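Give me structure tokens for this 189-residue protein.
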Amino acid sequence: MTEFRVPERHAQLLAYAQGLTPPSGWKIEISGDEIIMMAGPSVIHQRNLLIVREQFDAHRPSDLMPSENTDLASPNVGKLRNPDLTYIPVSVVELGGNDVPAELAAIAVEIVSPSNPENDLVGKVRDYPLMQIPLYLVIDPRDGTLTLHSEPGNGVYRRRWSGGFGDRVPVPEPFAFELTTTELIRYPR
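Here you go.
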């Protein structure tokens, strides 16, 4: 596995962000020249994540491991993102450290936060294809919708599947299954 290097222009911002002590339950992300702090998730968020994770776990290749809130770094495009759930190669433990090269992630899964939906619906739709993350599943309990973005190229996702809670999401390789969403819960209005 090749060594993961952080370009100098990004190293200062990364060092500053990693030196911050966020309140308990908060996480830090970097997008370009911005440091983004996010509040911890609600129980509805966590329940939805569990429903999704259990299905992905049943279909994951043996060389991938699930990881919640892992920093995915893509310093060449100035990004450090922390998806709710990702699947990364088991071999990343050999790298040590806290950051995983984003291009090694097989998928990023986000449950939209009611307090900052733009981060998942706009910011990460912009950032994840630049970071070469092949699949991005967005689950929005505010309105009961799901979107699976795929085939990143030229800084955008070229394919998009959209549906609602209750639909079956066609998840491609390396997982290759239909995600059942009937048990997902919407946020109260």
